[in-house]
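Re: folding output
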Amino acid sequence: AGGGGVRVPPPAIPSPTELGRLTLDEVFVYKIPPLKTASGHRADEWGLANPALTGVLKAVQCDDTMYLRLYEEAKTGESGVGSSQSVTTELRLFGECPIRLGDGKFLPHFLEPVVDSSRYFVLRVQAQNSNKHAYVGIGFREREAAFSLKATLQDFEGYVNRQRRAEKMQEQAATAADSGGGGADSGGEGARDPAEDDVALSLQPMEDLSLKGKIRIDLKAGKARKPKPRAGVATAGGLLAPPPTGGGGGGGG
């Protein structure tokens, strides 16, 4: 019989949940020259006062992948006249760096610090639908922003390492269970539970380590040695000047 019916679509595959880890409202983006020496990139060669873009950086985690996304603020319209005029803007994706650790790839493969500043980095930007990539320079006006970015990535690295250790332990436990001796059904002794050893040790009597009889201990007083004063920390030379207030990207440091 050819009765009609309602076609039920297959359930949609849920997309992985994205978790926002960090938003930095000001990031300077630079076009960088080719690497000249093996020692690394230098921010003072980028023309820090004239960034190619001043935008927003967001760090978003999706399972075991961290995405560093650069956005540019684009004007979408204007309303009002004179002093009451307002401008509407939106964030448009400029570039993205997917960070997937493993296979010999560590954090510096994706985000490499420069050698002359703690606030500037080289970011590996990859096209969303291909493996094509390019390198851009990024920097921040304040050291706190750079520190927040590094701390976020270190937390992500720790999360990935813990996940992989847990998976490895599960695989080892499954392999041990599959290759272990027979249980009660096969008449074998079976694999020994390590917890049984812990219980057996806890039931053993503790050795008496107390001091017996009367014991005299003489303590000779001596002159206390005064701590030597620490040498003053010299200010680091050769660092780039701090950025100017307002305007461009400023210097390193």
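--- second protein (sequence, then structure) ---
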Amino acid sequence: MIVWYAMRLGLSVAMLAGIRFQDFVEAEKFDFFTFSLQWPVTFCRVIKARCKMSSMPNFWTIHGLWPSNFTGANPRKCSDFFDVSHIPKDVITEMNEKWPNLIKNEPNEKFWSTQWKVHGSCAESVPGVQNISQYFTKAVKLAEMYNIKEILRSRNVTEGKSYTISSIQDAMKRNTTRLSKITWSKSKCARNWLFEIRICLDKQFGVINCPNVTKSTLILKYPNKDLQSPQALRCDPPSTGHSSGHLLSPFFFIAFLSFLSNIL
């Protein structure tokens, strides 16, 4: 019996070691980085009352810097460790501005922790992002290099108007010289609102063409922030005279959870 338990224990340890080794190998195996920036106005419209509307930025904020593959699944969840004290204080100051958690009652650190554990930890083989400090420092520097609001504005793409995907794509390409990935909301509260712009980078952080780019005449709304009326961003269902009139459909939550699983 003792021998049997010892064999089972040994097998379990070997399996765990194999999983960890596979995670490490997967961390080595990726083709490029996706640097994703999001437009807070659209994000807040999608999540509605859960958004920190009173402090919502009026500029594009960082969503993440993700190891990515041209084909197949992207590496994910290569480490469970995160310690914010590993990030230099001056970088944290920049992150609080450029990489905020837009969800109400959630600290910025929670967002950063998720991004490191799910994505950043899988890039430790690449010089320049080999630890927590380097990863977040690099992301902040990239945000400074690629100021989406100014890039678009320099090509007369401004908030409060609508543009084809192709025209937004062309505005980005004139600055980066490569194709970025344009994403938009499919929520009924913000249908076809410009949501994220993703810049693809090689492992030396040079800009490359993103795969699976949509070049389309589909028209997207680039919404502006109404500073006087945060409630204007809300999308509550019309009142039916019942107390449950403002309850969200469970189907919305299922769809939203599916959306988060794809972008986190």
